[in-house]
Design goal:
The chain is built from two helices and no strands. It is mainly alpha-helical. The protein has one domain. The protein is elongated. Helix 1 packs antiparallel against helix 2. The longest helix is centred in the last third of the chain and has 29 residues.
């Protein structure tokens, strides 16, 4: 796997997770299906946590490979 894939995918998932969480909590009102639905708040939080995990792990891997 390329060294940069984890951080890029992690950043994307973090962004999507935050957007879904904000829609699920009703802060962002862009979608009739998702706005104010608590299940999207939970799904968004899980996706955001996975994104952070991939992002941090990818950055650590990149830094370790530099040494």
């Amino acid at each position: 796997m390329k060294k940069w894939v984890r951080p890029v995918v992690g950043t994307f998932l973090l962004f999507i997770g935050v957007v879904w969480s904000l829609q699920g909590s009703g802060v962002v009102d862009n979608s009739e299906a998702m706005s104010g639905e608590s299940q999207w708040l939970g799904i968004g939080l899980v996706v955001a946590v996975v994104g952070v995990t991939l992002l941090v792990g990818g950055i650590r891997k990149l830094r370790a490979d530099r040494r």
